[in-house]
TrEMBL record, chain A:
InterPro entries from the UniProt entry: AAA+_ATPase, ABC1_TM_dom, ABC1_TM_sf, ABC_CydC/D, ABC_transporter-like_ATP-bd, P-loop_NTPase, Type_1_exporter
Location, primary (coarse class): membrane
Cellular component GO terms, alphabetical: plasma membrane
Pfam families assigned to the protein according to its UniProt record, in alphabetical order: ABC_tran
Membrane-topology descriptor: Multi-pass membrane protein
PANTHER family attached to this UniProt entry: ATP-BINDING CASSETTE SUB-FAMILY B, TRANSPORT ATP-BINDING PROTEIN CYDC
Organism: Acetobacter cerevisiae
Protein name: ABC transporter ATP-binding protein
UniProtKB/TrEMBL annotation, chain B:
Gene name, Swiss-Prot/TrEMBL: cydD
GO annotation terms (biological process): cysteine transport
PROSITE patterns with a match to the protein in the record: ABC_TM1F, ABC_TRANSPORTER_1, ABC_TRANSPORTER_2
Subcellular location: Cell membrane
Keywords associated with the record: ATP-binding, Membrane, Nucleotide-binding, Transmembrane, Transmembrane helix
Bilayer topology annotation: Multi-pass membrane protein
One Gene Ontology CC term in the entry: plasma membrane
Record protein name field: ABC transporter ATP-binding protein
Pfam families registered for this protein in UniProt: ABC_membrane, ABC_tran
Transmembrane parts of this sequence: 26-52, 64-82, 143-164, 170-193, 248-270, 276-301
Domain ABC transporter: 353-573
GO molecular-function term, one example from the UniProt record: ATP hydrolysis activity
Keyword Transmembrane carried by entry: yes
Length: 564, 573
């Protein structure tokens, strides 16, 4: 299992920091917006600090009989504060969602690079969790960590300089307290919350898989009367998740209280100074100013405690998202690859293949020759490796030894995309999407006309069924084509395959699920509609109506020619 | 989506009521915290007022007033404790509520059963049970307490302010009263936008799960780039919708900012004027009092607006709840399945199965799936249901399984109508094997034991042997302990089907329903699977739907179906 192994064995260990840096580098397209968002936040913060300080000073300065702060200034600062704060939040959120959309697309793209042979041990539920939750979590990276962090970095010097002008000692002490509240407490909580955050992510994924099993297996559950059992199983997952969240919440509560106390200690010091204790003499007017400044500054630092709490969760989310991309096998992405040649002659020579090192060999010296335009059948009982052959031809799997050529070119030297455009594949695993019949067909050839679609449906002997549907081509197929019977669904999938203009058709048990009469009709049409294309019919038996140039029988890891 | 507003409002109201009990400690702690904040502001104002008066009176003989500073420190410690308690209580309220709701949703899904999957994508159902419920955390943890605190806490703060500085209390009160108008105005818009956004979110998730399941098809069709692009479009749509909500939601918090700035500026100017007027009369207790109370009010303003801000922040949580309500209300009600009077169990050995004049329609637009179908299978015999795909075989299976109820006519086991049989007893009577068994996340062994978890090792091994699972065990890396993934990675269709047969052996039920069990198998495998099934069928009542040519291996009655009608019978069916 070359592909599924990636998650267990060969994944390079990534640290959270590397993962987060990787995510940030993926956001480069949105960098200007993201930076402007931070700038706006900084200006809004400054205005907030000024407003609070100015209001205090306005009142206090009245004792001197002079107006230090004018009404107009207050009005401008106040108005500016309200407007900038709104603009900042809107802009920053917009930039963030753009970045997240990029991330979602990148993730799907990376997955598509490596998941051609199916998801294997990576369960779709876990994938969904990764895309939706983890990427959603990452919005906090910018909004809840980077922006408040930048703000705190700006606040600290302002606070220290303003206070330091009155008393250096006071400036330093309050500066240290601010650093504790804004940096140390969040850092500590991030460090201690890391493991918990990772566990939470896993718990959520486990819950999701449990729920998807419950939903997908409703028939089995009902048939075996297993409602109670499966429910308690899922509820155990749920309890694990909630217990973890409670632990994290408790830790967050302590961290919040500690950060709050840092701020209170700072105000306490300023009060002492204002009252003239410990010879920290500062002027009463200045004391009012710095007190209001201190209150406002520490209020803005409060956001970072929550950020620290989420840093662990976020690091874990970033790592899981990035892992998927890093773990994509690179066999399909060699640099010196070319486009597929025009010639469609396929040749396999001495191919050795197994799905995993601990599995038996599927092919052991398989040699096979398929001339361009030939119609061949490959027969054998299930489990003999017929589908593995399709996987090898489509580069969904890589042989251990031997060579596979298309038009004389090693397929390992051909770009996977280009190769797959030359071969259309239909198998039992071919998926019908939860979409209209039309959309499902267009996957085969996006520029197909209405007539092309109907012709393909005719060829697949399913046009009559589609015609009777009230919405025709626009009928919604439902999940896995559930709105149609199994055989009808297979024929829709076949129509999609026939619609492609690929010169090579790999039909892996195309008649599965058809009754005997329909199967024969279908194979007869196949004889005519595939004129001029190479057809590789993979089957466990022949019905006798197929027109074939050559028949190969697979057994013992090799192919032997049988009479045509 | 029903979009039934009254139902949604009713649901939200019920949930609020349930949530409010759990949120009571959060509210009490919140009020206490506000009171302590007021006390602290008074301490700070006293110290600063004293210092300022000292400045005016010439400074020199300032006495150090220590008590307000110490009181401030004491109150700070107390407040930190109460904040921690409040945070913990709010987390607990959210967690308890989610546990309850998730249980309810899962029960609804189980009640709805397989029929639910015809209407709703499994990804969508999973999203409701996991993400929607998870998104309700804020509703119970934040919104519910905030919805009480936003009135109670400002009023509580307004009392001492009114006592100390009536005109400031008036300004503060007016600014505070203006906030709900802004909230209502912008909140309604946000709620409307939010419902649409959740629809987009669910669609994106369902789309992604579906695409991930079929990613091999997409990649091998060379369509990965197109699909990536379409996913990008969906994500972009999601962003636009989210921004629509936020544009309005942020306005509501901007309105609070605005009210607070106005209050701050007005009070600073008013008190400043008053102090200047008093100053002309030299240092007096009245000046000291004005200064202290003015500073106090300024310091209290953030405390006054904090609960209002909390409500604005939690407003999105309420919108989430309404979005979730729409989805949850669409699920069937989680009632225990009906066990009408005279519900009975049926003798567990030797069951006669019959359909009497059964009609069933999935979708009126496509005509009846079953049209007056009748047949009888005596205890211990086999009935073969034949017919092309789409002729109604699977519908009969679903009726026999009790997944769906006939529109007219009845399904009877030993003469008892199916709907009068206790559900537990019904599921004990039936084993079912479909075209593609669902293999759950876990080991091979877990998957077989699914049929009867309390089976002992001997029973398990007997089932493994009888279903010929032991024949392919050596090719698996960990034998029975091999983990099988989504759809059973590494297992062929025949192997997966043998696991289903092993389940049926383990369950040992008197009725065996076989729904095209060999549809995906080659003749050699089919033959050996049928042989296993023949052994399994001994002494059981069997209904076998198939169009396999190898069906002659089974002796029994035969019913041919076409377009939902019985077109031929063999034997005394």
């Amino acid at each position: 299992m070359k592909i599924s192994d990636q998650t267990d064995g060969s994944t390079p260990a990534l640290t959270d920091r590397q993962a987060i840096l990787r995510i940030l580098s993926l956001w480069h397209r949105q960098a200007p917006r993201l930076i402007i968002g931070v700038m706006l936040a900084l200006v809004a913060l400054c205005l907030g600090l000024v407003l609070m300080q100015a209001s205090g000073l306005r009142l206090a300065s009245s004792v001197l009989g002079e107006v230090v702060i004018t009404t107009a200034l207050l009005r401008w600062v106040g108005g500016g504060r309200v407007i900038l704060r709104y603009a900042e939040r809107l802009f920053a959120h917009d930039a963030m969602f753009r970045a997240l959309a990029d991330l979602r697309v990148w993730f799907f793209h990376s997955l598509a690079q490596g998941a051609a042979a199916g998801l294997g041990f990576r369960r779709a539920g876990d994938m969904l969790s990764r895309l939706v939750s983890d990427i959603g979590t990452l919005d906090g990276l910018y909004l809840r960590i980077l922006v408040p962090f930048a703000c705190a970095c700006l606040t600290l010097p302002i606070l220290v300089i303003q206070l330091g002008r009155q008393s250096v000692v006071l400036g330093i002490l309050v500066g240290v307290l601010f650093a504790c509240s804004a940096f140390l407490v969040p850092y500590l909580i991030a460090k201690s919350g890391r493991a918990e955050g990772e566990r939470l992510g896993k718990n959520l994924a486990a819950l999701r898989i449990g729920v998807l099993d419950l939903v997908g297996g409703l028939r089995e559950i009902r048939a075996f009367g297993a409602e109670g059992r499966i429910l308690s199983h899922v509820q155990a997952d749920d309890a694990a998740l909630l217990a973890g969240q409670m632990r994290l919440a408790r830790r967050a509560a302590y961290a919040n209280a500690s950060a709050f106390l840092c701020g209170q200690a700072a105000i306490f010091l300023v009060l002492l100074a204002a009252a003239g204790a410990f010879s920290l003499h500062i002027s009463a007017l200045a004391a009012v100013g710095i007190l209001f400044l201190t209150v406002a500054a520490f209020e803005s630092a409060g956001a970072l405690t929550r950020a620290g709490l989420q840093a662990g969760v976020m690091g874990a989310a970033a790592r899981r998202v990035v892992e998927v991309a890093v773990s994509t096998p690179n066999a399909t992405q060699l640099a010196t690859q070319t486009d597929a040649p025009e010639d469609t002659h396929i040749h396999l020579e001495g191919v050795k293949f197994r799905w995993a090192p601990d599995r038996p060999l599927v092919f052991d010296g398989l040699t096979l020759d398929i001339p361009a335009g030939a119609r061949i059948a490959i027969l054998g009982p299930s489990g003999v490796g017929k589908s593995s052959l399709a996987a090898l031809l489509l580069k969904a799997a890589v042989p251990e030894a031997g060579s596979i050529t298309l038009g004389g070119e090693e397929i390992s030297h051909i770009k996977a995309d280009s190769l797959r455009r030359r071969m259309a594949w239909l198998s039992q695993a071919t998926h019908l999407f939860d979409d209209s019949i039309r959309a499902n067909l267009l996957l085969g050839r996006p520029d197909a006309t209405e007539d092309d679609l109907w012709k393909a449906l005719e060829d697949a002997a399913v046009a009559d069924v589609v015609k009777t549907l009230p919405d025709g081509l626009d009928t919604w197929l439902g999940e896995g084509g559930i709105k149609l019977s199994g055989g009808q669904g297979r024929r829709i999938a076949l129509a999609r395959t026939l619609l492609t203009q690929a010169p090579i058709l790999i039909l892996d048990e195309p008649a599965t699920g058809l009754d005997a009469q329909t199967e024969q009709d279908f194979l007869r049409t196949l004889n005519t509609v595939t004129e001029g294309r190479t057809v590789i019919l993979i089957a466990h038996r022949l019905t006798g109506v197929e027109t074939l140039d050559r028949i190969w029988r697979l057994s013992g890891g090799v192919a032997t020619a049988a009479a045509a | 989506m029903s979009g039934d507003k009254a139902a949604i409002r009713g649901w939200t109201r019920t949930q609020s009521r349930l949530g409010r009990q759990a949120a009571r400690p959060v509210v009490v702690f919140g009020l206490l915290s506000s009171l302590l904040g007021v006390g602290q502001a008074w301490c700070v104002a006293t110290v600063l007022g004293h210092a300022l008066v000292g400045l005016v009176s010439g400074g020199g003989a300032q006495t150090l007033v220590l008590w307000p500073i110490l009181a401030f420190a004491g109150l700070a410690l107390l407040r930190a404790l109460i904040m921690a308690l409040s945070d913990t209580a709010s987390a607990k309220a959210g967690i308890d509520a989610r546990r309850r709701l998730r249980g309810e949703v899962l029960a609804s899904i189980l009640t709805g059963g397989p029929a639910l999957l015809r209407k709703t994508h499994s990804g969508e159902l999973a999203t409701i049970a996991v993400d929607r419920v998870e998104a309700l955390d804020g509703f119970f943890g934040r919104w519910v307490p905030a919805s009480v605190l936003w009135i109670a806490a400002p009023l509580l703060i307004l009392l001492p302010v009114a006592f100390i500085q009536p005109h400031a209390a008036l300004v503060l009160g007016l600014c505070g009263a203006a906030v709900p108008f802004g909230q209502a105005l912008f909140g309604i818009g946000a709620a409307v936008a939010s419902r649409n956004q959740f629809l987009a979110m669910t669609r994106l998730q369902a789309r992604f799960l579906d695409r991930v399941k079929g990613i091999a098809t997409i990649v091998l069709a060379g369509r990965a780039d197109d699909e990536t692009e379409r996913l990008g479009q969906a994500a972009e749509e999601l962003r636009q919708r989210t921004m629509k909500i936020l544009r309005v939601a942020f306005l509501s918090s901007a309105s609070i900012d605005c009210a607070m700035v106005i209050a701050l500026v007005l009070i600073a100017i008013m008190d400043g004027k008053q102090a200047m007027a008093l100053l002309s009369g030299g240092v007096s207790p009245a000046l000291a009092y004005t200064l202290t109370s003015g500073l106090f009010v300024l310091l209290v303003i953030p405390e006054f607006f904090a609960p209002l801000r909390g409500l604005a922040l939690a407003y999105q949580d309420r919108a989430h709840a309404q979005g979730a309500a729409t989805a949850i209300l669409d699920l069937p009600e989680a009632l225990p399945r009906p066990s009408p009077d005279g519900a009975r169990t049926v003798n567990a050995s030797g069951v006669m199965v019959s359909l009497e004049d059964v009609c069933f329609t999935w979708d009126p637009a496509r005509g009846p799936a079953l049209d007056h179908v009748s047949f009888t299978v005596p205890a211990g015999e086999t009935l073969i249901l034949a017919g092309p795909s789409g002729s109604g075989k699977s519908t009969i299976m679903e009726l026999l399984l009790g997944f769906i109820q006939p529109d007219s006519g009845s399904v009877r086991f030993n003469g008892a109508p199916l709907d009068s049989i206790v559900p537990d007893s019904l599921s004990r009577m039936i084993s079912w094997i479909g075209q593609k068994p669902v293999l759950f996340a876990g080991t091979l062994k877990d998957n077989i034991l699914f049929a009867r978890p309390d089976a002992d090792e001997a029973d398990l091994m007997a089932a493994v042997k009888a279903a010929a699972v032991d024949q392919f065990l050596p090719s698996l890396p960990d034998g029975l302990e091999t983990r099988i993934g989504e759809g059973g990675f590494g297992l062929s269709g025949g192997q997966a089907q043998r696991i289903a047969i092993a389940r049926a052996y383990l369950k040992n039920a008197p009725i065996l329903l076989l729904d095209e069990p060999t549809a995906h198998l080659d003749p050699a495998t089919e033959k050996s699977v049928f042989e296993s099934l023949q052994r399994l069928a001994l002494r059981r009542t069997v209904v076998l739907a198939t169009h396999s040519a190898a069906v002659h291996m089974f002796n029994g009655r035969r019913v041919d179906l076409q377009m939902g009608r019985v077109v031929a019978r063999q034997g005394a069916a």
